[in-house]
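Q: Convert this sequence to structure tokens.
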Amino acid sequence: MQNENGMMVYNAEGGQAEQLKPLLLPDAFQAWKDGEEPLILGLAKEQTAAGALAAQLEGGTLSVISFYVAPEYRRQGGGTLLLEQLLMIAENIAEEVVFDFISTEKEHFELELFLSAYGFREEERYGAIYATSLGRLGEIPVLKQETKNGGIPLRKLGPMEKNKAQQQIRELNAPFGEALFTGERVEQDLSFLHFKEQVPDGFFLCEKHRNGLMITGAWNGSGMPLLFLTLVQSAFNAARKKYPAETGIAAQAVNPTTRKLIQELMPGAVRISHCYVRTV
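A:
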């Protein structure tokens, strides 16, 4: 598919996907490297890579996980070509196309207008991300309280201890991935692991991102509400000592329970993620 400006879109396969790495979000490229076979569309002008789109199919939903046109090639219809090609493919394999993104820059507002013009409608689904600041959290009395039994910061655990804890948690069938405590982004000072009789029974994980902090995992294996609260208190007190009050902190409402916790522990948090859906 090509337009009057010489922009061309194509299905990227093999080495073509490798060449698009600079134009794809890291998670999208890694999914391709891991053999998950996402749909990858490339955008080119005069044989020069100008943009890319990646999407993954799950059930009847085709979710866009990366969408980018290089600044010097914008306003030439490249984004339109990518989207129209995606919708043509979706007609044969999916029931809906979904764009999930975090709105932090002017171009994201433009993306909202672009998607709306193509019949996408915003929906609030589980998975929405809410954000506030450490300073605002500091106004919540329960989070100001110091706790003596709020777990051990990951910074104080060695590699063998972390790996052992991960193995123990996997054996308990907790719904989390392989590298809970050893990921590159894990904030080791703000992430806490609690043990009961030398077996993990709860943890709270936080990652550092470009725009601030992100709560990425929480597990209360014992089911005791007080344990979860003490883990949160420990993480917040550590964050307050390490980061300025204006530092942003975000959390994802992946289910009704986490949404309720966000509402209770992060009052005033603003939804910064957007989910645009089009039925095909």
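Residues 69 and 75 are 10 Å apart (CA to CA).
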